[in-house]
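Lab notebook: predicted structure, single chain.

Context: the supervisor wants predicted structures on file for every construct in the current expression panel, including those that have not yet been purified. This is the next one on the list. No modifications to the sequence; it matches the entry in the shared construct table.
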Amino acid sequence: MRSGLTSRIVWLLGLWLVLSGCAPAVQPAAVQVVHLTFSADAWGGLPFTAEARQRTMVQAVLDRRVERLEQAVATTVDAQPASVLLSVQGFTAFFEVDARSGLPIVSSGYQLELHLAQGAPTVHARLTNRATGITRGLRLDPARLP
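Prediction complete. Output recorded below exactly as produced.
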């Protein structure tokens, strides 16, 4: 009885190996990664408190280094044509202080990472920052993107 069970397991394993070798491999669609940076004003300001920004500034100046605040921000995207693969991979608010040279250099805003199907036609997208409710339109022409 035990050898019958073992032979069935071996037979099923062999069948699985044969069938898995015959199955066509699913190729993921080629995507183009797009990185965009926006001013904080474009999206209704930053989600960081004045105290958090001040602490970041002081720490960067005291340590003569780069200090950065980051916060992921929920967003939705609506693309036209709807058949085009367009997805938001990251929408991040940032506040950065670079004090390596002594004088602090401050940069802030939002960084957006999109995945767009390669070879897609021009896409008109509406992005909504769900924290502020602000919606912005983008026109993405894959032929003109770096």
